[in-house]
Amino acid sequence: MGALTRRRVGMRAADLEYAVLDMETTGLEPREGARIVEIAVVRVRGDGKLVEEFSTLVDPRAPVGGQEFHGIGEGDTVGAPTAAQVTPRLTELLSGAVVVGHNLDFEQRFLAAELVPAGLPTGQSGLCTLRALRSQVELDRYSLPKASYRLSGDWPTGQHTALGDARACAKLLAEMLANAPGDLRYGGPAPRSFTVPADGTREPVRWKPRTSAPPGGLAPLSSWRARWRPQELDPLLCGGVFGDTDRAIAEMAAHRDTRFRERLAAVAAVTGGIAATAAGGLLVRMAGERGGEGLRDLVDRGLRSGRGLPAGRNGGDGSPRRRLGRMGRTGGAVFGHRAGFGD
User: Fold this and answer.
1) What residue numbers bound the domain in which 323 lies?
2) Domain check: are 157 and 264 in the same one?
3) Which pTM value belongs to this model?
4) pLDDT tens digits for 323-341?
């Protein structure tokens, strides 16, 4: 799963497209028999421009539990498509986009249990807005409705419907990108494009949306009343319940990571200065040995010939720069090397 970061790594998040996914289910765990009963995808650009949206009820082929949460009854799913019938359409919507969910770990379990066996490709880029929000912004509560209200002053509409929650999550994501104190970047694999195999024998599927989207796209983006964290947290530590102990652990890790980076920068500055001084002395000695050849001509000739400085000073496998690069990769979180949500 990828992540948002204020560090200068990865891709500029505002330049990507996102497929914001939400689903209502008959329970919490597919391993215990829970099934998808409604699914929605809202495809948006990083600036909040709506590209496309889709929603339908799904026949779970099982008793419809959880009615006290989502309000979907047994009769509502009669005539709705199955998860297997939804899979080709979902593949189209996820193609070329970062898949987003508010607690994407939950959706991932149901995708893996029901849609991947039906042919949904795996390995797409992913982003959890719940983890991203916890990593970047200080709030008391991070649930989708409470975070939306706390940050923008508006309660989301259509709560506990797949389309309503997907729209609220899409707006939250676009507002996060727009209100950040600097460019947010996406650290993760580039979105993959999928091809849906043509199947002339497949019968047309009749979708059964429970709610209809209001015209005009998403609501206008709001300015946030947010306090951004001075030190962003590692999103890997921002999952689960995220109680007081979890927050303290994540904040301590962020503090250690910041101190490590500061020491690393200081070491790099000192090492770079030493290397520059040594290189300058070497060039001066070489220029003196060559007599009439000027220092500028010597440097220009060396650059044109492609010869660098001797190994161990500013290049080669044993150089300080290479060693510092290895330290940077092992000392802190490197978001750009994390796998997609389906891996």
Assistant:
1) 257-333
2) no
3) 0.76
4) 333 333 333 332 233 433 4
